[in-house]
Every structure is written in C-alpha cells, then in structure tokens.
Write a structure and sequence with these properties.
By secondary structure, this protein is mainly beta. It has one domain: Sulfite Oxidase, Chain A, domain 2, CATH 3.90.420.10. Helix content is 9%, strand content 32%. The protein contains four helices and twelve strands. The strands form two sheets. Strands 1, 2, 5, 6, 9, 10 and 11 form a seven-stranded mixed sheet that branches. It is globular. The two termini are 32 Å apart. InterPro entries: OxRdtase_Mopterin-bd_dom, OxRdtase_Mopterin-bd_sf.
Length: 198
C-alpha cells in the first residue's frame, strides 16, 4: 500500500505531518454505516442543551459570512492530506447567532445518520474551525460529509463530523460514538491521542 496510495513526507513536509502519519495521494473515504443523502432544501441544523434552542435552515447558514480555508487534514488511521481547500463558515461567526449558557464546557456534535462526537468548548471555539460546504471549489460530496461537515484541523478527523446537523451544549463531558468504542476523548494528532487509556 505504501507507495501506491501513501508516501512518507518529504523533508520539507515533515514538520507539518504528525508522528505516525503518511501522506495520501488521494482523499480516502472512511465511514461507519450508510452515507446519508440529504437535500439542502430539507437540511436543518439545531442547537439545544445549555443554549437558547434554535433551528437554522440551509439559507440561514448561507447568509453568514463565507470564507476560503486551506487546512491540513489528519486521520486517526494514519493518513494525512496537506493543503485541503474548503469553503465554509467560521465556527466563531456561527456562535454569534446563538446564546450559550456560560456553564457549557463541552459540545456533542450530532449528525444525520446518528453519528456523534464530543469536543470541549475550548477546542470547538478555536478561530481556525469552520463548517464546510465546498471541497476544492465544488459542493461537498456526500461521501465527504456533504452537504455540510464541521472541520477541526487541530484534531484527528473523526472530530470533524460529517453530515452535521446539530450541537448539544453540555455542562460536563460525554463520549460520542467512537469515544465510547475505544478512541481517545480528545484526539490531538501531535500527541498521537488515537485510543483511550481507559
């Protein structure tokens, strides 16, 4: 497999590639379960928990400031893709649209298809995080999480939830799907936080 689909980073790329990772020549698709097919006319995004409950349509999201992003992408299964180009909406811009209780310290990401993953508010609110709806200038395909996914570049990709449709704000940490099945509760690539110590 190494050489055909993956390669070791070149000397000038090594400082951008976390330990134990190889560079992919494509953009692998890894999904547990069926791939949801969601029309933007039907898409809905909700917030609940320690927040004033609110729902957003696709048009509501598209009315928010849009930006181009270039970010490296690191999967826990040991591949990385550098300079992925996305179009999306900053998490920090979205957060201006909702009222969160100060007691909220964690977020559960909810998705079409039932997938969940947890993230601390500290990690979630980083300036570089965004909701992506385009990949390399084209509408985000379903296999990569379209119509919309969260992208959290500083954590392993399972935290960048595909098909995202809601955020639950919590006063304590709860585990999402992969975290309940042996993955690390945080997932920081440079520390190789792949699997739980519990």
């Amino acid at each position: 497999m190494l050489g055909k689909f993956f390669q070791k980073p070149a000397q000038e790329e090594k400082e951008r590639v976390p330990p134990g990772q190889y560079l992919t020549k494509g953009f692998p698709v890894l999904t547990y379960g069926a791939t949801p097919q969601v029309n933007t006319d039907e898409w809905e995004f909700r917030v609940w928990g320690l927040v004033t409950p609110k729902s957003f349509t696709w048009s509501d999201f598209m009315a928010l400031p849009q930006h181009e992003f270039t970010a490296d992408f690191h999967c826990v299964t040991r591949w990385s893709k550098l300079d992925v180009k996305w179009t999306g909406i900053k998490v920090t811009d979205f957060m201006k649209q909702i009222e969160v209780d100060p007691k909220a310290v964690h977020v559960m990401e909810h998705c079409y298809g039932g997938y969940t993953t947890n993230i601390s508010m500290e990690d979630f609110l980083k300036e570089e995080n965004f909701f992506a709806f385009k990949l390399f200038g084209e509408p985000l395909p379903p296999e990569h999480g379209g119509p919309m996914r969260l992208v959290v570049p500083h954590l392993y990709a399972w935290k960048s939830a595909k098909w995202i449709n809601g955020l639950e704000f919590l006063q304590h940490e709860e585990m999402g799907f992969w975290e309940r099945n042996g993955y690390h509760h945080r997932g920081e690539p440079w520390a190789e936080e792949r699997y739980s110590n519990f």
